[in-house]
Write a structure and sequence with these properties.
Helices cover about 35% and strands about 20% of the residues. The protein is α+β, with helices and mostly antiparallel strands and about 525 residues long. Helix 1 packs antiparallel against helix 2. The relative contact order is 0.09.
């Protein structure tokens, strides 16, 4: 699978030295290490090519020098693969990385894993060759010869929850790609089909009565089968499942055609939902499984895993995300949800997910909300005092939308209003709290109908690795009238009442059309007055 911390073949877990967060400037390290890793990877690929040719042309002799030489080269190549994998793991565990770097590292790591598998096939083949004698006829060679090979998953969209009868990989995600790796001394006779099977995580049994669409694909000329149209007909009752791939391979060796069955390791886990309402529960199970191979991990590594789960959940392209979780967002989560603890335990995760799962589901599932979020029109991860700091010196009617810290998945709006008696501008807060699911108004309509909200603040949506814009105020890039940015999302006609002037200071709840979806609460959930 693509996940660095759980690839068993690379036994590296460098102890993370815990420097203070602000000192983790990732840029210089990444800039020097990534090209090095990339260079080593190119060298590995070239050497595997040379090995393939040399093993294919090898003539067994009683003298074992040739075999020794091949084995030495295989061992050296394996060391290179392990070096590169360890470097990647070290980066992933020690630095808060931008999503495009995480994605590049994960892809490289998976690629190294594929190369390691190929190398192991060659090692078995060379081991077998060492027992052959130069005196053997082809017939004798055939008698003792074995087909060496395996299937390996080179790309996949998992772990993730997916809905029954929908494609397993969304447009922004990798499809599942399965690669056939085989020995240098055998050639594949086309065509070869690869079939997917469902395996239940808990009892390792195959889901025999499970119907899938798009579960059979042919290998292309690069020995790759691409599964981009897999669909499942029903849910897995919130249980984790994995895909495993099998191929009946026809091959030619010493002029003779035979066949052999190869299979892959299982994919990363996923859950098939019957309903979108199961999403945050399912994603929580998968996230936890993905992050914790032991009871606890470092906060840094947790952040990097969180970033990738967030990118996938919000259906963004990991190479060019519109709005990653910024350094500011991650530091906010670090402070507010983890009390700045350097280690995250499974119990910490459960508590965090009760809050964050609902937040993420809201961004993911409510269409206009997601679009406003990606454009930077919703601040989201900001505390109440920080929101007040941002609104200082802003005019009457300026507002920002944030996630309530106390009521998971609910929006709190901080807005400036004129105090009638002092004639000074004050910041008020309230919770958007629908009494009843059916009455929920889409957030753009809600904002359009309420006269207290006039100007929306827009913020930067980049990762900001160097924390150049560390203070929330520095993240603001503009203020516009709400209709400029939100009108395209309104489903109802705009009532212009009270939009032009500042004098109109209805408190929320006075106007009939809003009272059913809005109550004023302070953050403790007590009713607010005035």
């Amino acid at each position: 699978g693509g996940h660095l911390h759980s690839t068993k073949s690379f036994h590296s877990n460098p102890e993370v030295s815990l420097v203070s967060m602000s000192e983790r400037t990732t840029i210089p390290v990444i800039k020097t290490l990534l090209p090095q890793i990339s260079q080593v990877r190119t060298e590995i690929m070239k050497e595997l090519m040379r090995l393939k040719n040399d093993i294919a042309d090898f003539k067994p002799t009683s003298d074992q020098e040739g075999i020794k030489n091949l084995n030495k080269r295989l061992t050296e190549t394996k060391k290179l693969i392990e070096w590169a994998a360890t470097q990647i793991q070290g980066l992933y565990q020690s630095y808060l990385l931008p999503p495009e770097d995480i994605y590049a590292l994960m892809s490289t790591h998976t690629d190294l894993f594929v190369r390691l598998k190929q190398l192991q096939v060659y090692q078995m083949e060379v081991g077998h060759l060492s027992h052959q004698s130069e005196m053997w006829t082809d017939k004798e060679k055939l008698k003792y010869d074995k087909p060496f090979g395996t299937l390996v998953i080179a790309r996949q969209p998992f772990p993730k929850p997916l809905k029954q009868n929908t494609r397993a990989s969304a447009a922004s995600e990798d499809p599942t790609e399965v690669l056939l790796l085989h020995g240098a001394r055998m050639s594949i006779v086309c065509p070869t089909t690869v079939k997917a099977e469902l395996v239940y995580e808990e009892y390792h049994q195959k889901g025999c009565n499970f119907t899938m669409q798009g579960d059979v694909q042919e290998l292309d000329e690069n020995n790759t089968a691409t599964f981009s149209e897999i669909r499942f007909s029903r849910g897995t009752r919130l249980k984790m499942v994995r895909l495993q791939f099998m191929a009946d391979v026809k091959y030619k060796q010493y002029g003779q055609i035979s066949s052999v069955v190869f299979e892959s390791d299982p994919s990363s886990p996923f859950i098939i939902m019957t309903n979108e309402s199961q999403w945050d529960f399912s994603e929580g199970i998968l996230f936890k499984k993905d992050a914790f191979t032991r009871n606890e991990i470092s906060w840094i590594q947790f952040s990097n895993i969180l970033q990738m789960h967030y990118i996938r959940a919000t259906r963004q392209d990991p190479e060019v995300p519109e709005r990653p979780l910024s350094m500011h967002d991650l530091m906010y989560i670090y402070r507010s949800q983890f009390s700045e603890r350097e280690i995250v335990t499974q119990k910490d995760f459960d508590r965090f997910w009760k809050w964050f799962g609902k937040v993420l589901h809201k961004i993911r599932h409510q269409k206009p909300f997601c679009q406003l979020w990606l454009k930077g029109l919703i601040f989201g991860f900001i505390s109440k005092p920080e929101a007040e700091e941002v609104l200082k010196d802003q005019p009457h009617g300026t507002f920002i939308i944030r996630f309530s810290e106390r009521v998971a998945g609910k929006m709190a709006i901080a807005y400036n209003r004129m105090n009638e008696s002092t004639k000074e501008i004050e910041t008020s807060h309230y919770l958007v709290a629908p009494h009843d699911k059916k009455e929920t108004v889409a957030i753009p309509d809600f904002l359009s109908q309420n006269e207290n909200f006039i100007y929306v603040l827009k913020l930067r949506t980049d990762f900001d690795a160097e924390m150049v814009y560390a203070k929330p105020r520095q993240r603001i890039i503009g203020r516009t009238h709400k209709n400029e940015d939100l009108a395209e999302y309104y489903t109802k006609k705009i009532s212009q009442k009270g939009l032009e002037g500042y004098e109109n200071t209805h408190s929320p709840g006075e106007r009939g059309d809003v009272s059913n979806v809005l109550e004023q609460f302070d953050e403790d959930g007590d009713m607010m007055h005035g």
